[in-house]
């Protein structure tokens, strides 16, 4: 049984944003400070990545651990009510992600997925933040591999 009414739950869920989140803004600000220029929510590219580096043909997706089901993450919980709905929703999200990533890679666009838990840790720990940003920048600028998940 849900602890709040359906109208309250609906109001709460409607406040969850998909663009311009605090975590996305943190990554954007940090990459901009390091002189990387990108397109935001670039609709020309399949899947509308959160950031797209046209010069490097790299799409960056900033995924919430809850919505995209980050494996072995404490933030990827499953609601106790309406479980069938949520399991289908999560399954559809994961299948869509895999399909989009493979289509992008097939068209020569490299894919970087940054998870919510990683960004939260970056915000708390400046040393970890610099290490992760170095890895992100290296992936964006270097063509060694086509997919990275951090």
Explain how this protein is built:
With 150 residues, the protein is an alpha/beta fold. It has one domain: Endonuclease, Chain A. It has a five-stranded mixed beta sheet, with helices on both faces. Helix 5 packs across helix 6. The longest helix has 24 residues. It is globular.
List keywords for this structure.
150 residues; alpha/beta; Endonuclease, Chain A; five-stranded mixed β-sheet; 6 helices; globular
Widest sheet, order of strands:
1-2-3-4-5
Number of helices: 6
Overall domain count = 1
Arithmetic mean of pLDDT: 91
SSE ordering: HHEEEHHEHHE
Question: How would you summarize the topology of this molecule?
Answer:
Elements: H1 6-14, H2 22-33, E1 39-40, E2 51-53, E3 58-63, H3 65-68, H4 83-106, E4 110-115, H5 116-124, H6 126-141, E5 147-149
